[in-house]
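Internal ticket #5521
Category: modeling
Description: The requester needs a full-assembly model to guide mutagenesis choices. All entity lines are attached below as received. Residue total reported by intake: 535.
Assigned to: D.W.
Attached entities:
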Amino acid sequence: MTRQLGALTIIALFVGACGSTPVETDSIELSPMADTSSAAVLSVACSGCHGPTGGAITSLEGRSSAELREALLRYRSDADGGSVMHRMMRGYSEADIETISAYLAEGVSE
Amino acid sequence: MTTLVPNRRDLLLTLSGTGLLAALPLAAHAQVRARLVIIGGGFGGATAARFLKRLLPEAAITLIEANPEYYACPFSNLVVAGLRDLSAQRFSYDSLKAEGIEFVQERATDVDPVSRTVTVESGRALTYDKLILSPGIDFRWNAIDGYDEAAAEVLPHAWKAGPQTGLLQQQIQDMKDGGVVVMSVPPAPFRCPPGPYERASLIAHYLKTHKPKSKLIILDAQEKFSKQPLFEDAWSSLYPGLIERYGANEFGRVIAVSPSSRTLSTEFEDVSADVANVIPPQHAGVIAHRAGVADMTGWCPIDPIDFRSTLQPDIHVIGDATIASPMPKSAFSANLQAKVCAMQIARALSGEAVEPTTLTNTCYSYISDRKAVSITGVYTNDGGSLHSVEGAGGLSPLNADPIVRENEALQAKTWFRTITKQTFG
């Protein structure tokens, strides 16, 4: 669990440290949410920051729901964390995180 | 690509066990042939148009916007400080047009909620089934005595991005070393609560770098302000002695200006400026008042479950024009409100119930050319109003390592790229 969160963080820091801007393509989706299920409405808040190209904010594409859930729960329970994600996840229940992780994982099975 | 072809996720959902439930609403959505009109092509309106087109492919979506292109406010303080080109703030509506959204480049002049009609400047009338108003702010001209549209050409507000941004940048660049820049901050509520203090930080960065004998005075109608401990820490550590701020209880509120002498007057004294940035008091965009969706406060009360107006039927209001506190008047808020509003409209038009959900906001503010701080919030929209979720949200940590500030600046850049791509394609 720690390792996976670490991996997410390292990706973010690595790209940031290089100062590189990922090549923008026209394949950026408006958002992954083309439906209006409760899960889609709950998860749409993530799309304001997490675009497919990533950069200093990690792309969520291709991540399994287990990977997402563990990272989000770790943010939620880390009382010393000061990042945007730490501050945000404290406002979500475990059930919310379960729903969001499953929705964003785009059907990737655990 | 935004296409009408279901994406991989939709297909997976349709094939999976839970997908059966999700597929039914999608089929219902395809039957909706409503006329949906959006006024205002900013982070709220353009996002709403694109989302509605995606969710309701057979509906007629019309976006009414007076300007041929959009200048984004987020990151425009970097332009003011000479750290970014104004052209990086400009976005076209070409993608929206290509997606099948009718773009009416005209000023909306009136809304009749009874006949459900919007009138535009040329006299054309557009009938709607649902109207989304995302008009942003307009200025209360002359609320500060002497500050009108002509005065803004001398004492720029730069609070709607575009030529005003360039004008303020040019004035600061042309100022002599040893000059005095004066900023006037209005009483809340106004667009972008931390914006004036980000601007102060970046102007201070410019002055320290290029005109070190100069000074920045903030005349502030507010007593407390957004991200205050973070900004004050940045000012004392990065720009010691450069910024002087007078809050409301130190007679900071500007009540009158004289463009000819570049003087700003508080109740206590007259302050002479070499460059003056007057951010005027604000209210919801004028069309909201014409539509009857603004109340005595000058802003628009809404039910945040789907951002419907509480004053007029079949009209939704999103973005800076709304009364959505504690959700701030930010691009992030407008963009997310647009998505939630569009999704709930699609649900309602397809015969589904609207449901409460959780919303968020994140605003980054630069404190120097390479450092930024942030504020976040988490909100629920149940029960007719927005509430902050207790124990969540808040500011970047105080006294953090510089790498934390530098990382948040990098995150801010990614956020800007993502949200503008989502909004404008």
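Resolution: model delivered.
Comment from assignee: The radius of gyration of chain B is 22 Å.
Ticket closed.
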